Amino acid sequence: MAKLAIVTHEFDSFFMRKPNSTAITSPYLLFDVLVHLKQMGHDMVVVGGPTPISADAALYHVDATLAPKEYVDLARHYPIAINFRTGDISKRRVSQLLLARGDEWAGPVIVKSNYNNRAMVEDIHNLRATRAGRPLPHPGVAKGGEYRVLDSIAEVGEEIWSDSTLVVERFVPEPDDEGFALRTWVFMGPRERCTRSVTADRISKAADVVKYEPVEVPEQLRAERERLGFDFGKFDFVMRDGEPVLLDANRTPGIAAPLRPMMKKGALNLAEGLDALLTGRAAPIGA
Prior knowledge:
Radius of gyration: 19 Å
Strand content: 25-35%
Structural class: alpha+beta
Number of helices: 8
Shape: globular
Number of strands: 16
Distance between the termini: 21 Å
């Protein structure tokens, strides 16, 4: 069996202690996967910081949109390096909907942070670094506001176009009889699941899901997975005119409380995918 190093940022908090309990949990989907992996006989250790250790494999789980080079460079220290090609998951790298000043687009637009999860984690990293008297790991990056939908590109002000932390995209929701749909593809090596969830609001939030169902993964998204170098992660997308439109790619997916039972139920399937990567039964994407 293999020893797996989980590479995290030195200011990440992979583990959490449950309130009024000694039990350990985690905000990340990977945690439940590792529980099953351990039951399969593998060993693992979470490493906080860019320090190599002796291990058979490493999984890149740094919760930051743009990968620090010293973390990505750790790949060469391990016989099997998983997800180390996902160094840039910014909207400018991932999105198929980007608009630029002067573009022609007749529909509504959405203003987002260029950073994953509105740069909330980058903001936390910076705060922890400041408290520790350390240099900021993400200088110039601060937590962004909520997504904003505008009726037209003409309503986008100069303060948005000139802000490098923001992006403007075409807004193309997937309508449903009960509201709006969002499709989520979660995968680990050769194992996967894909779900279509529906919310009443046009900007989907897990807490507001009224229904969800399994759906197929479009082949075009598999090509995107290879382009972006993902072995493990979560892709959010919609279908528009019969074509998939990728909205977001996340290498460190979390678990929203309303979806936790479904996500935990699928953890064994993903653990079997990780086992396949560790034992050589499936090559990491891009290997």
